[in-house]
Write a structure and sequence with these properties.
The chain has about 55 residues and is α+β, with helices and mostly antiparallel strands. It has one domain (about 5-54). It contains two helices and two strands. Strands 1-2 form a two-stranded antiparallel ribbon. The longest helix is centred in the C-terminal third of the chain and has 21 residues, at about 35-54. The protein is elongated, with a radius of gyration of 13 Å. The termini are far apart.
């Protein structure tokens, strides 16, 4: 389930939308504390990447 999918799409000429799956949310059904910690790290990195695009 990791790495998470990232979707980049042009929604209008010159306007791009970037979205990503929340890795923490996708890991809720898995009972693995180490994987959940990794999911938090990945989520933080994804969020920073998206924010840096703005």
């Amino acid at each position: 389930m990791l790495p998470c999918n990232v979707l980049v799409q042009e929604i209008a000429p010159g306007q791009v939308e970037v979205s990503a799956v929340d890795p923490v949310a996708s890991m809720t059904a898995i009972d693995n504390p180490e994987l959940k910690m990794l999911a938090k790290e990945v989520g933080t990195a994804l969020q920073k990447m998206v924010e840096d695009l703005a």
